[in-house]
Amino acid sequence: MNTELTPLLTAAVAFGWISGIVFTVAGIYLSVRHRRMHPLLLLCISAISFSWIEAPYDWAMYAQFPPALPRMPSWWPLNMTWGGLPSSVPVGYIGYFCLPAVIGAALGRRLSARFGWRRPITLLTVGLIVGFCWALVFNAGLGARLGVFYYAYVIPGLGLFEGTLHQYPIYDAIAMGIQMMVFTYLLGRTDSQGRNVIEMWADKMSKTRVQVTAVLLLVCFTLFESRFQGGVLVNLVMWAFNLFPLPPLDGGRVLAGLLPRGRPQEFLARIEPFGFFIVMGLVIAGVVSTWWLSPLMAFGYQAISLLLSPLTALIR
Q1: pLDDT per residue over 134-180, tens digit each?
Q2: What is the pLDDT of residue 77?
């Protein structure tokens, strides 16, 4: 690994900081201009709010960064990344997720208008393709191939350049494609008045229209219960799904650590190469959503509401 900050690593760090700041400023500007929470700002906050998952992801995926990258301080929460979490990661999550979402939404709307395709299906399909290709270019190409980061382990048969220093887990690109389906739909789906699904939902749920002022951060907390629940919902789904106790998800790693040594752990290790397909089968059958996602999300939502209740009471 590189022990010096090469031009490539410098460019990667600069991309994280600059793209995150640019998209956040754009989201704030659009929110002030339209006098309501713009979906781009919602995606920015949503992206940085689940950047905490990077460290557990690095641990589960055996991802490693070159020692030369600047790191977060040792007290940083969930700092499981080998050598410490790179300091550009939290802000960089904004650019990493918002850029393909913006591209997917623009491309999906253009294709829908040109060929007369149904916009929802077009946005979801384009989001899947753009997200998959973005992960291949950014993670497999720029990341693993050029040396910005490395994957020390991939599930046998599900990796590119498997067995080399530049190996890449293809299921990472699949997961990114699924996430971009959601983000692309949120940005690109609009009604006859130009409102997207977040704004339509907000207008339906809100009793009064909340104006976005210069004190944007304070207003964001005020908007939490009426307009910001969409971002919380997205994060709760990702959190609950990732904790499903079956490898290669993080919940499977936790289960492996809790099980006694011997046959239970050996059985879990044997089914790990097929874990992704088992999980997808359970999702299609409705088992995951009924018996796992719904109860865990309900618990998480109640916990968040309880933690934020003093703040919302003060703001009101």
Answers
A1: 999 988 888 877 777 888 878 777 788 888 888 888 888 888 888 88
A2: 64
Cis peptide before 248 (omega within 30 of 0): yes
How far CA 179 is from CA of 43, 89, 124, 299, in Å, comes to 12, 18, 10, 23
- 249 in Cβ contact with 238 (< 8 Å): no
Q: Is the pLDDT of residue 213 over 50?
A: no
Phi/psi-derived region of residue 213, left when phi > 0, alpha when psi is between -120 and 50, beta in every other case: beta
Distance of alpha carbon 84 from alpha carbon 70, whole angstroms: 9
Give 38's contacts (C-beta < 8 A, 6+ positions apart).
Answer: 27, 30, 31
- Residue 29 Ramachandran class (φ > 0 left, ψ -120 to 50 alpha, else beta): alpha
| pLDDT given for residue 38 in this prediction | 78
Sequence-separated contacts (24+) of 300-306 with Cβ below 8 Å: 300/236, 300/239, 300/240, 301/232, 301/236, 304/232, 304/236
Full-prediction pTM beyond 0.70? no
Q: Report the DSSP pairing between strands 63-64 and 150-151.
A: antiparallel
Residue 17 CA to residue 111 CA, distance in Å, equals: 32
Find out whether 161 and 144 touch, Cβ atoms under 8 Å.
yes
Task: Sort 193 into a burial class: Cβ within 10 Å, 0-12 / 13-18 / 19+.
Answer: exposed
